[in-house]
Amino acid sequence: MLRSGLSLALLAALAILPVLQAAEPHAPEVDPRIGTGGDGHVFPGATVPFGMIQLSPDTAMPDFKRAYKWAAGYQYNDPTIMGFSHTHFSGSGHSDLGDVLVMPIAGDVKLDPGDEKVPGSGYRSRFEHTSEVEQAGYYAVTLSDYGVRAEFTANRRVGWHRYTFPAAKPAHLLLDLRPSIYDYPGKVLWSSLQVRADGTITGCRTTRGWAPGRELCFALRFNQPMTARALYNRETDLPYKGFKGPGYQPQDQNAQNGRAIVGVFDFGKLKAPLQVKVAISPVSEANAVANLDQDGKGWNFDEQRHSAMEAWNKALAPIDMDGSKPLRTQFYTALYHALMSPSLSMDVNNEYRGPDHQVHRTDGFDFYSSWSIWDVYRAQQPLMILLHPDRSVDFVRSLIAAQQASPFGMLPVWAYQGLETWCMTGYHAVAIIADAYVKGIRGYDADKAMQAMLSTATYGDYGDLDDYMKLGYVPIDKEVEGGSKTQEYAYDDWAIAQMAKAMGKHDIYDGFEKRAGYWRNGWDPKTGFMRARLSGGQFREPFDPASAGYGDDYTEANAWQYSWYVPQDVAGLITAMGGDRAFTHKLDELFDAKVDPAIFKNVEDITGLIGWYAHGNEPSHHIAYLYDYAGQPWKTQARLKQIMDNEYGPGPAGLIGNDDLGQMSAWYIFTALGFYPVTPASDEYAIGRPFVPRATIHLGNGRSFTVSCAPFDDVHPYVGQVTLNGKPLDRVYLKHADILVGGELHFTMQAQPNRDWGKSASARPTAMSPYR
Fold first, then answer.
1. How many whole angstroms separate alpha carbon 229 and alpha carbon 177?
2. What keywords are annotated for this sequence in UniProt (predicted)?
3. In a shared domain, residues 574 and 595
4. Which residue has the higher pLDDT, 219 or 66?
5. Is 102 exposed, middle or buried (0-12, 13-18, 19+ CB in 10 A)?
6. Is the CB of residue 375 less than 8 Å from the CB of residue 337?
7. Are residue 297 and residue 429 in the same domain, yes or no?
8. Which residue, 552, 554, 594, 749, has fewest beta-carbon neighbours within 10 Å?
């Protein structure tokens, strides 16, 4: 609920005005290599902000048993490139996509990718990192085995390729519709490929991947005429027992279909670069052609590259940050990664595919999908509200549209290209919508949004919501991870209550505010941890707070990590734990514990350990800020420095865990600015400390909000005093309205902690329960 002198109407008006251009372009400061190694799971290729195309190299598309490291198709330490595909997730912990894979070939053509350990065994090629160029909106590499220079850029719906072949060898482009990230036998249900009379190549494929029955279509054109072509159906190569296919069928003809389609397009010896442009569509080949016609005009590759960089300059423009070159690279790369998802999933005729697998049409907004909602509701979406509120309007409208098309009346949980995967827990789309509403974002039907939220929160078959509504908790003998689901549902219910209160819907507010208190049903005062209960009411035994894994009480976490997840009522949690002293003592235990990372060897997502704190996974992301709520913000400041120093860095290994479609990066941006949205759907940000000397947020309304600090060095890590527009700020939270009206938040840093600032109960961020 907004607690300031500004009305919601005024906040809405301020929020949707256009963003001003930054004083200096920031796209050149982005380093897309950061996070491409280790568990970062980001891709280095070409895309534009929230674009439909992610055109990037794939170094491997291994089977599902070992696909985790290659969730983005690329791992920095791999020696070969298999090809270049047009769809990727940025930083996901699970994957799919890798659609429309192409590979330029000079000389003899092999139809299979081959073994990366055996050079020349297939069409894949070795490469050197020294030949790579990674920039915002542009990627280039030299394929060593072919001597081909490959360059890529993109716009919203089209991927642009430019290949420079050695003059002495014949040039070919291979198109393989078999591979897919997170591959397994029989994943491709059907595919088609045809050459149209005008030379346009079109096709579709249907897969039974993470989103079963996903169909993606494409249209491809060359800037030079083909000299020959061969389309193959290689279904006898499908690696599952008992299948009898028609055999290899090379055909110099116009069409081929089946489950293992490969096309090879020949161009002879070229004197000029071969250019290729590819459009995709989740709806149809006809729509893919229309996308290519409208968004793929002309053949000026360099102009498209420039346009892509300008799109990134515009998207990065809302923040001007002053700092050293390495710090600026770290900052703007994080912001770059936070601006990729959700991605456009709509054709130029406004058609998109919904979770019912049917084709729908928008009524004047852009439809976005790729929703890693369990992750991005925490910081990535609140960051969009702050920096790109106009885009947030379309995000909310997209969520509502998806719910309207859902066979279950559910808002998205983890969706991409319009389809639902049901991955992860909670119904946190309600928090995204409520956060936008409470912070003044308008431009959508709020009553329809509320109905979508209520329909989702009362669908009893989802995650045993039926028992949750009856018992006040999710019984672990009925539903895996019942402990964390109880806590997450309670927070989501609180978010619904806040929007209902702001809308004047007091009956809805009362009901969901009560449900928001169900977190207490998971609290076990005997052990001092949140736990899961059985249907009969007793806690499940035996209990080990270090235990983590599928089927346990918690989602991708243990009791040490999930017991802090009550963002809507931290004051109530403090009371349950025995007060400020006991609460902060247990927080210290969490961070200072000696933990062997091997304990989580079977839970890939739990990485970046500082004690039990796991920054590589989202349930920990708010924890360092909780000292603010117990009167010890100086400890928040110390823990944040520990996290920033240990969990982020330059180079391919610069992300300690998968970026989860921008959440890890958004955490960095907020924390670098000195504040963080611990509780989305409130109008407050918990104050930490800045990790940049000065940053200005351009609000687009003729105002700007600046964060500054001095001295800025490792010798002065603690906040001595904070002023807002020159006046001392005695609270450890910032209101959204404080930012929108503009001004300056200044931190005076010092060597020793200020143990008095933020100590009083009145200085702390608010919660459901009063501070005692």
1. 16
2. Hydrolase, Signal
3. yes
4. 219
5. buried
6. no
7. no
8. 594
Domain membership flag for residue 211: yes
Phi, psi of 71, rounded to the nearest 5 degrees:
-60, -25
Residue 4 in this model has a pLDDT that exceeds 70:
no
Cα 667 versus chain centre, distance: 12
pTM of the model: 0.95
Domain-terminating residue out of 287, 314, 341: 314
Owning domain of residue 548:
8-16+357-622
pLDDT on residue 593: 98
Mention every residue, 6+ apart, whose C-beta is less than 8 A from residue 98.
58, 61, 73, 85, 87, 88, 179, 180, 181
Cβ atoms of residues 718 and 709 within 8 Å: no
Assigned token pair, 265:
């397009």
Per-residue model confidence (pLDDT) at position 8:
38
3-state helix, strand, coil in the chain (%, to 5): 30, 25, 45
Question: Are 721 and 748 a contacting pair, CB within 8 Å?
Answer: yes
Place of tokens 């030379």: 199
Strands 675-676 and 718-724, bridge-based pairing = unpaired
Closest CA to 416 of 362, 349, 367, 451: 367
- Shared domain check, 369 and 255: no
- Spatial separation of the C-alpha atoms in residues 17 and 372, rounded to whole Å: 27
Structural domains counted in the chain: 2
Mean pLDDT of 697-714: 93
Rounded CA-CA distance 639/623 in Å is 9
- CA 66, CA 594: separation in Å to the nearest integer? 29
User: In CATH, what number is assigned to the domain containing residue 273?
Assistant: 2.70.98.10
Residue 722 near residue 745, CB atoms below 8 Å:
yes
**344 contacts 52 by C-beta, under 8 angstroms:** yes
Residues paired with residue 610 on neighbouring β-strands, in sequence order: 613
Residue 299 lies in a domain: yes
Q: Is residue 446 part of a domain?
A: yes
Residues 381 and 297 in one domain: no
Token pair of 438 as six digits: 């409470």
750 pLDDT more than 60: yes
Q: d(Cα 135, Cα 114) in Å, to the nearest integer? A: 29
Give the position of tokens 């329960």: 769
DSSP code per residue over 218-250: EEEEESS--SEEEEEE-GGG--STT--------
Given a cut of 60, is residue 244 above it in pLDDT?
Answer: no
Cis peptide before 62 (omega within 30 of 0): no
In this predicted structure, the answer to whether residue 246 has a pLDDT above a threshold of 70 is no
